[in-house]
Amino acid sequence: MRSMICLSFVVLLLTACKTQTELIKNKECVGCNLSGANLQGAELSGANLVYSNLTRANLSRANLSGAKLSNPPSQFRSASDVTILIEANLSDANLSQAEIYDTSLKGANLQGANLNQADLKNADLSETNLNNANLQNANLRGANIRNAKLQNADLSGAVMVSAALHNSDLSNAKLNKVQFDSGSLLGANLSGADLSYADLKAVDLRTVNWQKANLSHADLKNAGLEGPYQPDRDFVGAILCNTIMPNGQIENRDCS
Q1: End-to-end CA distance of the chain, in Å?
Q2: What is the pTM of this model?
Q3: What pLDDT, on a 0 to 100 scale, did the predictor assign at position 246?
C-alpha cells in the first residue's frame, strides 16, 4: 500500500513538473492544475491560463503582461472550469494589460505588482495585499475589494464603478481622476489619499477616514459622508450637491 501511495505521488509530481515546463515553453495551459506551483520570475507574457487553478502558486516577479487569467463565458465550460488565484503570490509581478476579469484572487499577495490597464472587472480582490501596486487606468468595475490593503497604491484614472472597498486601507493612495460612481467605500481609510478630480457621485462614504485627504475638484454629488471624520480643509474645492455631510446635514452649495 505504501509503495502504491509513493508511486502515485511521484506520478503527480512528474505531471506537475511537465505541466509547468510546457507552460513556460508554449505559454498556454488552459484548465491546468497549477496550485502551489513555483513560477517565480517566469516569462509568461501573453500566456493563456484561462480556467486554470493557481491557488497559492508562487508567481512573484513573473512577467504576465497581457496574459489571460480570466473566466470567459463558454457553452462548453463546466462548473469546475474556473480560473483561481486565491492566496497566490504575485508580488512585484508584471500584470499590465492582463485579462483577470471574473477571477478570484482572494487573499492574494499583489504587493508592488504592475496592474496598469489590467482588466479586473468583477474580480474578487477581497483581503488582498495591493500595497504599492500600480493600478493606473485599470478596469475594476464591479470588483470586490473589501478589507484589502492598498497603501500607497496608484489607482489614477482607474474605472471603479460599482466596486466595493468596505473597510479597505487606501491611506496615501493615488485616486485622482478615478471613476467610482455608485460604489462603496464604507469604513475605508483614505487618510492622506489624493482624490483630486475623482468621480465619487452617489458613493457610500460613511465612516470614511478623510484626514489629510486631497478632495480638490472631487465630485461628491448625492454621496453619503456621515461619520466622525472630516477632511482637514472641510471639503474645500469639492463639488457638493445633495451631499449628506458628516454631521448628517445635506449640502447643496454646488447645485446648478
Answers
A1: 80
A2: 0.89
A3: 85
